[in-house]
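Can't attach files on this board, so I'm pasting raw text. These are the components:
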Amino acid sequence: MAHQSELIEKDILAYLKSQEEKSLLRFITCGSVDDGKSTLIGRLLWDSKMVFEDQLAALEADSKKVGTQGGAIDYALLLDGLQAEREQGITIDVAYRFFSTDRRKFIVADTPGHEQYTRNMVTGASTAKVAVILVDARKGLLTQTRRHSFLVSLVGIKHIVLAINKMDLIGYDEEKFRAIEADYREFAAPLGFTSITALPISALNGDNIIEKSGETPWYQGPPLLHFLETVQVEDDRDEQPFRLPVQWVNRPNLDFRGFCGTVASGTIRPGDEIRVASSGQTSKVARIVTFNGDLDEAVAGQAVTLTLEDEIDISRGDMLTRPEAPPLYTRHPEAHLVWMHDEPLQPGQLYLVKTATGVTPGRVTAVQYAVDVNTLEQKQVATLGLNEIGLARIELDRPVSFDPYGANRDTGSFILIDRFTNATVAAGMVLNAPDESQRAHLSAGESNPWAPRRITLDAVAATNLNLVDLTEEKGLFILDLAQSIRDYLDKGNRILIRLRDLSQLEPVAQLAYENELAFEFDRSGDGVSILLFKRGTTPLKGYGDDGTGI
Amino acid sequence: MKKNLTHLQQLEAESIHIIREVVAEFDNPVMLYSIGKDSAVMLHLARKAFYPAPPPFPLLHVDTTWKFRDMIEFRGRMAKESGMELLVHVNEDGVKKGVSPFTHGSALYTDVMKTEGLKQALDKYKFDAAFGGARRDEEKSRAKERIFSFRSAHHRWDPKNQRPELWSLYNTRIKPGESIRVFPLSNWTELDIWQYIHLEEIPIVPLYYAAVRPVVERDGMLIMVDDDRLELKPGEKVEYKPVRFRTLGCYPLTGAVESEADTLPEIIQEMLLTRTSERQGRLIDHDQAGSMEKKKQEGYF
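---
Top answer:
Structure tokens for the assembled complex are below.
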């Protein structure tokens, strides 16, 4: 193994001590069948000596039997786990690979690059911190490069390795390499990555994988493995507000009541004040209890048990936070949905929504738009099918604690489960909660390049309170209603909205639905006119989370 | 001050999270306890997850009646120490029919005594979730296994129809009769397991440490003569050699390695310098390519 063999032989205890400080990096590799992805991972496992002799013997036999390298070692065969797919020469699902060096342990999510790419890649990327995107140096950026980049940015990966592979086939040409890199940087600029690192490699020959290649003297950066060993991905989870979704209440006897869960962000110490997101009750942390003794501090990522100074009502499903920075607590999150099932989304149908704090029934009330993963264009759709991605409004049966996914992957994510088949049908990432969009810390959606324009019916109507002209709106939009306009409508006033054509109707209908408004529809010479009003017989209701909806 | 968790701390936290999630969401979970080093780590993590209470589920050992005597003794000791109920299930049909690794071959024997025995026990106690200590790095077909792995009412695994598993959000929904196998050690490697045992001083069966033991050489493996049921074939001779085991199972099917490593650091040292993977000592994996995948589909762990 690529460990310090000498130290292992001479002083195993010193070696073990040195291994205790090792960190963990999860990354995903993205590429199509021809990009040499499996060869690259096979090479990393091979060269870091994670392949044993008996596995090598099996690999040699398999390479002769089903290999694609004319009997030579086919590294890809190290990876293909299931018999059916080995025979077809494709990988059909997400697989996890492991290797380690003296500095880091690596978990690689290996996903296929063909049909089910969206579902599998989103799954594999959900726990990854770095994405290695493979590009064939002969072909440059392809549609799929865009697709992969979009998907990993959607799932919140911030660090990209652009591995420009098969450099041997273009004579290690620096200019071509630089051109691909420049293309990529331009294309990826709006996707909000923190770092993009381009590497000239040949997975087949091992160039710039483990060691710097003699073929690319012009390349000054580190080889791939060295980069992966040293890239700083430690997020700022510790500096974020404290979040502990309560997983289990530990009550072995009347004297002990511990709240178990994994710290999703922030830190906590005995004596710190905490608040229960649902009830607003507060208390102070008494102890942080673990098997190895009480802790002075718990940090993001640790699975702990807290006891509190006061007996307050807390159960699974609650979230403990610091009082000064509460999470969203809402029935109406707005979220990106990735649909993962053959059976398309049924808007209005009840699903089970599983979040960090538990399971809540809920429905998708509307799909605002879907994104074409190849062009990144948005289109109006009624529903989402397998591997489609869209922005959706969700209505939960009861309020749930969330953070915007951009701020916290653990408390901003959820899955949808079909109530009848129990299949996992979608993955969700909370953008924000429209009802509370006034909150300052909810601006995560603003920086999102594919979010539709949000138009508040206050601003638009400011010039002429009775007329909102949307005929000039080019792209997608979502409508919100300012409190002043609500009051105005409550008094029996009406607002006229002008639309260019029918494609703009959906956000208006959505606005009416969510605010219990009625509208009249007219086709006018140059477009559509909508008269928005409140029915006189509807009793006045609050617009808080618990009053709207059903 | 920024505190980054080490890889073992992160693996530990993930496993504890998984174990707690099962207890929170299932009615009748059980921990399959095979007495080996992976089971030792899994049990340790369960104790950590619910400390100061004992883990709120029983341990289940599917006993083939061919386990090493040291394992059986260790099993009782750990159940007592952890304060957990220990359930032992033996496939009595198999015993009545005299199924043994010698008379029926390793494949049939494993199917009857392990796979069938396991299904019988799960049906008998109506467990809806069963923890197993399998790791993804052990074998290629396991690399795609989910952490929460669905099993039909007939205990079958369908590798082509697995639920996507994202973040740390696990789909635990099942219908009556169906169950979930849960693998809290999915992301651990053999080296991680050993390092963690070292760091946390977790007790393991003495057979992992080298000692002079009676062995015979059979089919290229060193088989320990653990009791008088092992009949010698013509030409076989019992020898006393310093040996240890890298993996534990039924003694007639588990090969020993010659070794002097009788401390934990020496075991890890030997493991790091070795050139063969740990499953090599298991006879059942040798039968054919994809054999593990077939066994898993049929309900083997």
